[in-house]
Amino acid sequence: xxxxxxxxxxxxxxxxxxxxxxxxxxxxxxxxxxxxxxxxxxxxxxxxxxxxxxxxxxxxxxxxxxxxxxxxxxxxxxxxxxxxxxxxxxxxxxxxxxxxxxxxxxxxxxxxxxxxxxxxxxxxxxxxxxxxxxxxxxxxxxxxxxxxxxxxxxxxxxxxxxxxxxxxxxxxxxxxxxxxxxxxxxxxxxxxxxxxxxxxxxxxxxxxxxxxxxxxxxxxxxxxxxxxxxxxxxxxxxxxxxxxxxxxxxxxxxxxxxxxxxxxxxxxxxxxxxxxxxxxxxxxxxxxxxxxxxxxxxxxxxxxxxxxxxxxxxxxxxxxxxxxxxxxxxxxxxxxxxxxxxxxxxxxxxxxxxxxxxxxxxxxxxxxxxxxxxxxxxxxxxxxxxxxxxxxxxxxxxxxxxxxxxxxxxxxxxxxxxxxxxxxxxxxxxxxxxxxxxxxxxxxxxxxxxxxxxxxxxxxxxxxxxxxxxxxxxxxxxxxxxxxxxxxxxxxxxxxxxxxxxxxxxxxxxxxxxxxxxxxxxxxxxxxxxxxxxxxxxxxxxxxxxxxxxxxxxxxxxxxxxxxxxxxxxxxxxxxxxxxxxxxxxxxxxxxxxxxxxxxxxxxxxxxxxxxxxxxxxxxxxxxxxxxxxxxxxxxxxxxxxxxxxxxxxxx
Length: 652
Fold this sequence. Notes:
InterPro entries: Cell_wall_metabolism_enzyme, Dup_hybrid_motif, M23ase_b-sheet_dom. One of its GO terms (molecular function) is metalloendopeptidase activity. The chain is mainly beta. The protein is 6% helix and 44% strand.
């Protein structure tokens, strides 16, 4: 009880402290009535989690608890509290089979990846699937039609939808559909006395004048755990100007090997709090903002998810309490500054990392060489508002780069040297060069335009164009674009989008079969289907990710193999290696039959409206991919062959 009361006080203080900056729906007093909800799986028995609220997942924060189910399906799932089914759905991906239970207190509990619904609810869903002749369905039953008492069986646990293994996904949402942390409601089935763990720390320049270890680049440090449980850095950190901290750390729970998201992060420099992060409540409508809160570029390149420990431009998430610099560290002297980072979980287990940042001399003199060496190559990159030009092995007694800007020439000296490269930095808000010349080497920047967030805008080139909605961007985008035969590259994969953009593209050579040719996003040797609509020799498509896009024809029909087609059931496998499965259907004797689908295995199986009536007539199964290719299989009903094992007689 002492922990429970402490959590409520901390939560209320945090919310009240941010009330002035939060939308009205967030400025509420959070309370967690202990005992209102019961644990939905094996209540009263010790249990453990495979995931928690705020875990860093692909493109989103995890929205609830992943409760382990002994690595198997079919465990009873109970109503966490009295309520009625507000919504029930069957999804190919996502939550799979899912129930939303609305409670008298206005909150909603969610149960995902279910194997089966309770009998009455399952019959209702199946009837609606047959009426609408669809596998995927979303239903909102009449209020109170399917009501459950607290502790009443509502489903069996499963592995449906986007689940990576058998478990129950469990959420609690408030009356405004914001995600709450279920662990704050005091479930005794979960015990945890293990503190979180620091993994990696990155420090990066936050503007064109920032430096870390004398460089305009992020530097990664590895915290080392000490005998007393605290963490320190082996390496000395030096920096100047405005810098930010990115953190890889995760919670650990007693008795499991899983990694979980952090509940709270607090950063102090010289005893003054600069930043605090509290994952207690967040709106379901802003899950895409997650990509703006992590180091998205590093996540795309390496898979590691660094959480930004400062408020990024374009942020809409109210998870932070910061200072004037929005959590960034402003190093303006050459003194040593103590930095303390405290991370904690939902049970207030905590770890602390302590290190010092020593200020560097700003704008040191760049070296001068008495020889002339042409650059081996010149690379350009855009990070935030800065154009970075790297000239490998470039040396000169009078080094400079010539920028070509709208017919004018601007000469610039190097800002620093990094290893073997001369580095030139340019604030793109001042001017945007279309090409750069260093000695005899000229490279194009492919910079096209400055696109501002919060307003609809367009850019049109000779063979391609991009339309931005007012919600497309988190932050200002310095648009780059390059067309190469049947491929188009827009910026790079390391820039996150908040919403779709519409691209129109004219490939070098129009495809012969436009009906089967669509746009795909190319990534690490794989092609992901995006679709698109042809208008003469132009194709228009939408994307929520930047990078390289190519036209690709898919003329191969999907694969279809039936395992059983008897009077009792139909089972089989479907798949498509290029564009992917779009839809499928089955009829028996001309009557539509429900096929369930496990997309992870490509497995399909029938479910009758009335189990007592055997199938009768010709079986027709049709599978269509997203490029429009179809496979149709016609066959007769065949009783399955029962193979009996021979039993060897034992000699007496």
